[in-house]
Design brief:
Blueprint lengths: L24 E7 L7 H10 L5 E4 L1 H6 L1 H9 L3 E4 L12 H18 L7 E2 L9 H7 L3 E2 L4 E2 L8 H11 L5 E5 L6 H16 L3 E2 L9
Parallel strand pairs: 1-2, 1-7, 1-8, 2-3, 3-4, 4-5, 6-7
Bound molecules: zinc ion.
The site of zinc ion (ZN) has 5 residues, from loops.
Length: 212
């Protein structure tokens, strides 16, 4: 087995869970899409409020719905690789991880030629050797400070409550636009974002040491 590769210069293998900038800043991240049922409506909500987010894409879903990926990129959002088949990679060798991540990158770039993919997020947060492999491929491992638990939808009111109560300055927030019915997540974002904006919160990308 090859040793775990060194990170590409400027790309840390440390899992980032905070945004660029200080104060009332949040980094919204959406996993498991693209999802033709909920992602377009989410994009409408984000666009209406002038917010950009990170979309961590599931490779099989990219192949199924490349048009939705094109819209994500056209709207100015940032992409993350969320693996090809959303498997638990925690026990995988570096070689197997790299092959999977390359397959997912290729799927994304079939949808959007030349797409930039500056982040990687491990399915289930089961990191194993993935942070070093992703960093060697130029992707920063992307964690989170707050997870809403929206993979098991608890009702929009509860999601709103968890978001309002759980945010802290600089937090990366994990939400889902794919992998199931995510209409409650979109509804919650639509309700909370204007309130946060009125309170002075801004939205920014997760930190990368190679970006100012
Ligand atoms: Zn996921």
């Amino acid at each position: 087995m090859r040793p775990v590769p060194a990170p590409r210069p400027g790309v840390s293998a440390d899992i980032v869970d905070t945004t660029r900038g200080g104060g009332r800043v949040l980094g919204l991240t959406f996993d498991d899409g693209p999802n033709p049922a909920d992602t377009p409506r989410l994009l409408d909500v984000l666009r209406r409020h002038g917010i950009t987010a990170v979309f961590c894409l599931w490779g099989e879903h990219v192949d199924a719905h490349p048009d939705v990926v094109r819209r994500i990129v056209a709207d100015g959002h940032t992409l993350g690789n969320h693996s090809m088949r959303h498997e638990d990679m925690s026990s995988w060798s570096a070689e197997r991880i790299e092959a999977d991540l390359r397959e997912a990158d290729a799927a994304i770039r079939r949808a959007v030629p030349g797409a930039r993919i500056p982040y990687f997020r491990a399915p289930y947060g089961a990191w194993g050797r993935t942070p070093a492999v992703a960093a060697a491929m130029g992707m920063r491992p992307l964690g989170w400070r707050l997870a809403l638990g929206d993979w098991d939808p608890p009702g929009t009111d509860e999601l709103v409550r968890r978001l309002r109560d759980g945010i802290t300055p600089g937090a990366v927030v994990l939400l889902h636009d794919g992998g199931g019915d995510r209409s409650q997540t979109v509804d919650a974002v639509e309700r909370v974002v204007p309130v946060l904006a009125a309170e002075g919160w801004r939205f920014a990308l997760p930190r990368r040491p190679d970006w100012p």
